[in-house]
Design goal:
Layout: E1 2-5, H1 12-28, E2 34-35, H2 37-41, H3 50-62, E3 66-69
Parallel strand pairs: 1-2, 1-3
């Protein structure tokens, strides 16, 4: 699994860009599973405190074999 790290900050445009990158990678490389944490946890952004959100992302990242940082 590959974790896609992308800036979010609760911004709609960041979420949309991360989704575009995720969709492109996931459809062009079917040999890997790409994980988009913004899609997984984005709806919780204003519902849990920042530290809890980061811990959730780090737990998910710990299950992945690689990390790709996108911008």
């Amino acid at each position: 699994m590959i974790y896609l790290a992308h800036a979010y900050g609760g911004k709609k445009e960041n979420r949309e860009h991360a989704k575009q990158v995720w969709t492109k990678l996931a459809t062009e490389d079917i040999t890997e599973t790409y994980i988009n944490p913004i899609e997984a946890f984005g709806d919780l952004y204003d519902k849990v405190d920042y530290d809890t959100g980061i811990l959730m992302c780090l737990e998910l990242m710990s299950k992945c074999d690689k990390v790709i940082v996108t911008s």
